[in-house]
Every structure is written in C-alpha cells, then in structure tokens.
Amino acid sequence: MAERILLCDTTLRDGEQAPGVALGLREKEMIARALADAGIDELEVGVPAMGDSEIKAISQLASLHLPVRLITWNRAVLADLQASYRTGVAGVAVSIPTSDQQIRNKLRKDRAWVLEQMGQCIRNARKEVDYVVLGLEDASRAEFIFLAEILAEAEKLGVDRVRFADTVGILEPLKLFFTLQDLVRMTKVPLEFHAHNDLGMATANSLAAVQAGFKALSVTVGGLGERAGNAALEEVAVALRYALYEEVQINLKCLNSLGLLVSLVTGRQIPRSKPVIGADVFTHTSSIHIDGVKKDFANYQTYPPESIGRQHATSLGKYSGRKSIVRLLQTKGIEFDQATIDNLLNKILQRAQEIKRTLREDDIMEIVVSSC
Description:
CATH superfamily of the largest domain: Aldolase class I
Mean pLDDT: 91
Strand order of the largest sheet: 1-2-3-4-5-6-7-8
Distance between the termini: 63 Å
Helix content: 40-55%
Number of strands: 10
Order of helices and strands: EHEHEHEHHEHEHEHEHHEHEHHH
CATH topology of the largest domain: TIM Barrel
Largest sheet: 8 strands, parallel, barrel
Number of helices: 14
Structural class: alpha/beta
Number of domains: 2
CATH architecture of the largest domain: Alpha-Beta Barrel
Shape: elongated
Radius of gyration: 25 Å
C-alpha cells in the first residue's frame, strides 16, 4: 500500500497571522476539535514565544488529549523552545531562514551561524519532545547547495521531518517539481511543503510537491494566512483524492462544515466561487450545463458533490433557457403554454440583469405568481 500523504494543519498558527484575525481560547478549541474529529494528521497550534497567554492557550489544547499530534512553531532560539516545552505538546517545529536575503538582511548573520544555531536547537529539542520538525524559511529563494547542506545536517541530527517553505509564494509548479525532486533524492528524512498563495498557485504547488516525492503538506482551512494566505485544506485534500488519486485520512465530508466554522469565528466570508466550499461551486446556470448534468453529472463536474457532503443545484440567469424554466415548473406541478413560458423567461432574464446575480428558486416563483 502506498504511503499516505500527511495533511498538517496550521490554521491556529499561520492562519491566525491573517490580517484582522484573532482567535480566543474557546474558538481555538472548537477549531482544533473539529479538525481532529475530521481526521487531520497534525495540528500546529501556535507560537509559545508570544507570551504567557499563548502558552496558556496551547497548554489548554494539549490538555484535551485530542487524537492528533500537536506541534508549536519556534524560531531557532532556545528561549522559544523552552516556552514550548511548558505547553506539554508532543512536538516542535524549529524554523530557520535559509535564503541569503533573510540570513543577511533579517538576521544580520551568515550561513555558518544558521547551521550552528540549527544544530544547537535541534539537539536540545530532541531531549525534550517526541517529534521535531525543521522548518526551512524562505527555502524557495535559497541556494540549492545550501539547502543540500542543511538537509545532510538535519539527517545527522535525527529530525523527524523537514519543512520546505515557499514563504513569499514565488514558486510555480514546474520549477518546483524539478527542484524538490532533487531534494527528495538526497535525503531519507520525510519532506513537507508549506505553500503561500501570493501568486494563486498554493494548491498547484502543493500537488507538484507530492508528485516530486514530498510526504506532507501544510494547509489551513479556507486558505487562511499571511497576505494572500496558505494552501487551502479543502482544495488540497480534494485535489489529492480526485486529481492525484492519493489517499487522505481526513473525512472529505467534513470540509464544508470546517470552512463554515472558521468563517464564523474569523468573520471572513467564504467567496461564493471558492473551490470546494463556496456556495456556488456545484450550481449550474447555463441551460447547456443544466441539460448536461441532468443527463450525467460527469458532463460538467470533476468530482461528485456528495463526496464532500454537498449537492448539485441549478439557478436561472442570463444564460438560462426555456428548458431550465420548464423543468423547474414541472417539479412544482405547473404547466404553461409556450407563449407564457417565453414571457416568464424574458422577465426572469430582465430581473437577473437588474439584481446582478442568478435567481434562486424562490425569486423565480415570485415572478411566476405575479405573472398568473
């Protein structure tokens, strides 16, 4: 049996870094429980170095003993790790900048310092927790030769996983595939890809990483995160299953409710066309499409909505035709002559143009009643 791809959710860490998002303890617990119940493989639950309130919140999540590994995010600083140990989580992620841009212009250090600090922190962490992830910040802009040196050292240090972060979302799938494929070949340590969506390619890049041999992916519910966000859990999970035919542990039927929960607690609306969880993504308006899905859903749908707990729907708008109206009326036991149908169609199209959206069933029935 092929090894399953791990989905490592960071909604409670990178997701909370989204502008305007601040989660309370109760909200964090709700999200953590929902993700654990859905079958997520790992939860990155915060940054203990932020202070006592963050340590308390993470400790509370750890005390729930959810059936999922909890890890924290830390700089390669011993004080950060000491704060993490106080929370009782099973694992830590130690993050180090790897690009010369960040090493020189953020840390004001050099590569030798990075390697030394990395080794010191990982050796310390391995004494205190069960699971250690090495995070390579800004790896997509790092020199390949330095990444290779880091991977060799990480393997010697015995880390459990290495995270390659496209921190500024600059990669594209083809370049990513060939670069990451070479990294996979040079280490026995499982690799994780952490995508940002600055150029709209987080999901595509995540799939390319899997095709290159990566074993884990960072995700957030709804793609929540810094700037343009991260790879969306729901998009990645469904794409793994239906585009790459990979097995995932998470229950796909929980994706919609997860999206609604995070939308509710963050106050961020889900765009109607948002892949997988958007209100309109299984709604067909064109008469050609409606006729096609009535004959066979596969004509205009890449995967069954029932697989994620959704259903097909239709609506009427500018591109809807007579057949669409007749079908709706037939479901209501209503029959009109052709002239009346044509009149209804004109009114429906005019109304759709006025309100700048497709019409729901109740909108259409209002027009039908007013025309009788």
